[in-house]
Specification:
mainly alpha; about 0% strand; globular
Length: about 200
């Protein structure tokens, strides 16, 4: 038995639901730190950044599931739905911090979306994730059919690219970190193009 097979046997015994509990904690903890001075002199900006970065990291994990299975044999597919929903949760928290704590004024929110390209891109990424989150359930798979459902959920690729571009445009001056995120996401998407169709259809 290979190491990957042993890992998969162990993973098969683990339920996916604890991921939701563990994943729900970071935003709550960071919000508490912001209230108590633990996020520095600009807690709202820091909270926005941490939540957005965590969302990108989770999207990268989601995109890595299929290449990881193909190249190493380690299968995290049973956890992919939970990981994707957590990514949406982090993006939603990121957006709510911006809406409620940062901008606050409704008219200014709309102006920012229209006038600031990085915000426009970020909102498009959020909109791209909405149908994915809504249909991340067995009922939607049955009603849509597996083929149509998989085609819809390829929108994850678009959302990830938009999120990374949003981060690059948001950065002040030349910074390597946002570019690294964009490069990793593009690299994972490029890797999927080299995989057999059957490998990335699931």
């Amino acid at each position: 038995m290979t190491l990957a097979q042993r890992i998969n046997i162990g993973l098969g015994k683990l339920p996916a639901w604890p991921l939701y509990i563990v994943g729900a904690l970071p935003p709550v903890w960071w919000f508490y730190l912001g209230l108590t001075g633990g996020l520095g002199v600009e807690p709202i900006e820091r909270l926005e950044h941490k939540l957005g970065e965590l969302a990108l990291q989770m999207l990268i994990v989601v995109l890595a599931v299929t290449p990881l299975r193909k190249w190493t044999g380690v299968n995290l597919t049973k956890f992919r739905r939970a990981l994707g929903l957590l990514a949406f949760y982090f993006v939603t928290c990121h957006l709510l911090v911006w809406l409620i704590l940062d901008v606050q004024i409704l008219s200014e929110i709309w102006k920012d979306i229209l006038k600031r390209p990085y915000i426009t891109i970020g909102m498009l990424g959020f909109v791209a994730m909405l149908p994915l989150a809504i249909t991340s359930n067995n009922l939607s798979i049955r009603k849509m059919g597996p083929k149509a459902w998989r085609r819809l959920h390829q929108g994850t690729y678009i959302a990830a690219i938009l999120g990374a571009v949003h981060f690059v445009m948001l950065a002040k001056g030349f910074q390597f970190e946002p570019l690294i995120y964009l490069a990793v996401i593009l690299g994972l998407l490029a890797a999927r193009l080299t995989l057999p169709r059957r490998a990335y259809a699931s």
